[in-house]
């Protein structure tokens, strides 16, 4: 009977019977890591306030200051223009910088527990990206609330459209952060390199300034900036659903979404491969 049962068990394995359990375990690991990062944010009020402080200053001071100094060129409200750029930039950058915690985990005791666990490194990476993407959303919510208070027109359809748009932007930022992190060996190096790579994108992506009609060298750099498509897709969501509101010049939403999706996939595949390979060589 034992010999007869063995081929049956082998056939079950070949048919993939254990695979659902493995997938369940991996998905559980992804959920646990993502939940851990989100709970850490809720408990770390100082981090939440610090992430909100700078973008709120930009929205509250820079937008109205530009509005009073330059008026409304082409009828476009500069307060709304800065608001939309800062919203996308904050969500995207929060997810990018959140991946630095993966290096911190590797340097601290938590990494010893995670990286030697049965969960694959792919699940760990996925959990971190999803977790940091969720962490970025409360910051975006705070900016939206301030935008409503200062009079930025955000009707209900726009608010609804901003939810998937912001999540898409955050996932792209997390994947970009993973790609950068895969070549960085320490948290200190990450903190030194990330600002150098992120700050120029504020201007190349058009967070505060128009980018259509730039000189050719800057136009090429702008086209290569991942943040640009996050900013423009956010503006597509805000202005595209308000036909009566004067809108800044932007690339069409399908193009922005396609570039953002393709870059998300490229960053995710390359970053995961490089990170996993680096961890295996440790």
Structural write-up:
With 282 residues, this protein is mainly α. It has one domain. It is 79% helix and 0% strand. It contains twelve helices and no strands. Helix 8 runs parallel beside helix 12. The N terminus is likely disordered.
Count of distinct structural domains = 1
Q: Roughly what percent helix?
A: over 70%
What is the N-to-C succession of helices and strands? Answer: HHHHHHHHHHHH
Shape: globular
Calculate Rg over CA atoms. 22 Å
Total beta strand runs? 0
User: What kind of assembly state do the chains in view correspond to?
Assistant: single chain
First CA to last CA: what distance?
47 Å
Structural class label: mainly alpha
Pick out the low-confidence regions.
1-17
Count of DSSP H/I helices: 12
Mean pLDDT score: 78
Query: How big a fraction of the residues is strand?
Result: under 5%
The main sheet comes to: none
Q: What topology emerges from the helices and strands here?
A:
Blueprint: H1 2-14, H2 19-43, H3 45-70, H4 78-98, H5 100-107, H6 109-114, H7 121-149, H8 156-181, H9 187-204, H10 216-224, H11 226-240, H12 253-280
Helix pairs in contact: 2-7, 3-4, 3-7, 4-7, 4-8, 4-11, 7-8, 8-11, 8-12, 11-12
